[in-house]
Design a protein that fits this description.
Blueprint (H helix, E strand, L loop, with lengths): L1 E4 L2 E4 L8 H12 L7 E2 L1 H8 L3 H7 L9 E4 L2 E5 H10 L11 H14 L4
Antiparallel strand pairs: 1-2, 3-5, 4-5
Length: 118
Amino acid sequence: MKAMEGGSLRPIAGAAGSSGTETAALSARAYAPAITPALYTTEQAAAYLGMSEAKFHELRDEPWMCAPIPFGPRMVRWSRADLDVAIAGMPRQARRPSEPSQLLRSKIERAKRTGDLQ
């Protein structure tokens, strides 16, 4: 527990968790910089790429996808740098046609049946 004395928060003597070292450790953690890991779990790697884990596992077989780093039979990690290279190598969508292919196909079929080219 903390009490207000002289405008600052200080631990109450005898309260649970009020040791000076614990208070210092808590304040040090509060101001510690956030560390971004260089290696991601599969869940983190999928989130980094903005997709579900299921979709991420589907993409593991793609030729442009990077390979995981094995740390054991059931523990793999993904390098953030390798994932960035994989993102750069992902295939891009070709320019979309002006009309969806289904709409164009139906217009062609209708023109065949009716002889009208509208």
